Amino acid sequence: MRDKKILFGVCGSIAAFKAAGWVSSLAQEGAQVHVVMTAAATRFVTPLTFSALSGNPAHSELFAAGMEHIALSAAADAVLIAPATAQTIARLAHGLADDLLAASVLACAAPVLICPAMNCRMLAHPATQRNLAVLREYGCRIVEPDSGRLACGEEGTGRLAEWDTVREALLGLLAKQDMAGERVLITAGPTQEPLDPARFLSNRSSGKMGYALARTARRRGAEVTLISGPVALAPPPDMNVIPVRTALEMAEAVSRHATAASIVVKAAAVADFRAAAFSAQKIKKTAADLLLALAANPDILAALGSKRRSGQLLIGFAAESSSHEAEGRRKLLAKNADLIVVNDILGSSTGFEADTNQVTLITRNSSETLELLSKEETADRIWDKALCLLQDRAAVGAENRA
Ligand code: PMT
Fold this sequence. Notes:
The chain is globular and about 80 Å long. The two termini are about 45 Å apart. It has helices spanning about 15-30, 40-45, 45-55, 70-75, 85-95, 100-105, 120-125, 125-135, 165-175, 210-220, 245-255, 300-305, 325-335, 375-400; strands at about 5-10, 30-35, 80-85, 110-115, 140, 145-150, 155-160, 185-190, 195, 200, 225-230, 240-245, 265, 275, 295, 315-320, 340-345, 355, 360-365, 365-370, 375. The chain contains 14 helices and 21 strands. The chain folds into two domains: about 5-175, Flavin prenyltransferase-like (Rossmann fold), CATH 3.40.50.1950; about 185-400, CoaB-like (Rossmann fold, 3-Layer(aba) Sandwich), CATH 3.40.50.10300. α1 runs parallel beside α3 and α9 packs across α10 (about 210-220). It has about 400 residues and is α/β, with parallel strands linked by helices. The strands form six sheets. Strands 12-11-8-13-16-17-19-20 form an eight-stranded mixed sheet, with helices on both faces. Strands 2-1-3-4-5 form a five-stranded parallel sheet, sandwiched between helices. Ligand PMT binds near residues 208, 272, 297, 299 and 351.
């Protein structure tokens, strides 16, 4: 979001108070937010609130200050309209320019994201549905409203979508769509290997790295399937999320979805061992030491590497505490991967649980250590590398055919 110029349109709905929080979040992420309010919106939340939260004057008057609508729309990287009422949706669908927001959108060449919020019957009305269809045809992206209890007390579809969903859609509008057409399969998080009804073997993986890969790939246009071990993270929007618990469940889910994938990334921290025998009763505490028999889990990445379909790109991670580069290269070859992402699990700002990571990207003929970055930035750099590898492979293929 940093330095992106967002023209944020707010319409007259009780959900306008949620827009105040969204403007604040965008500003905190470094975006330059310029709020344009309809006259009705100013009845719900004052322009002063939006000015204070965005750090920029909030506008609502079409005839107040010269060519405001042109200046605002020319500068915008994206337009976000939330909440978008039936009235404003109709205005935009008909190309009207009778208030500052409608005129600014009409004059704007940047991508437009519309988040409807209204009573369920207003939303379902053929006029509103037709207007939304027209806006889609014009290239606007619509974030579908949620279902639930509406401000009027009724139950139905029409609630403003959640910020997480809208933020992802906005980032998608701002991102280059260089992964469009790719079908990406990602595993994330730990596995849990039950010992008895109360206990399991697991590890410290939070899922943050794998989820960052999933979100960034989706933003860049890929179709994403995310196979996730048990984590405390919300499922990312707009992708197929498959929850699993054990390594055996993950192996089964991966084998079902891998064939269709053009890129597979194994970011999950799969437990190497499971209990040789699950105890149906809680194992009793005794004075004596307990010896547990463990059975080896299948190596999912190695299995993928041994029978992958041609053209598929295979990316593994390596969680290392020493000999990072050597271990990464050993795993690259042993598991027949195209790229191994090595991360240090001893650092407090890298590897498990941290919001940041510092990784080394190891391929057959290169090794590159990245700087310390957020996990989302790290994920984007991994995708950049993956796309380079695919390009190189396509170039070699073309050369061989010539
Ligand atoms: O989830 P976070 O808290 O954000 O932390 C991120 C992370 C440290 C978990 C992640 O970045 C990471 O390093 N994931 C891989 C952890 C791991 O299992 O490393 P490994 O060196 O043991 O395994 C090497 C590769 O083989 C990995 O791609 C792993 O998914 C795969 N593997 C391992 C064992 C197994 N039985 N099956 C596998 O597929």
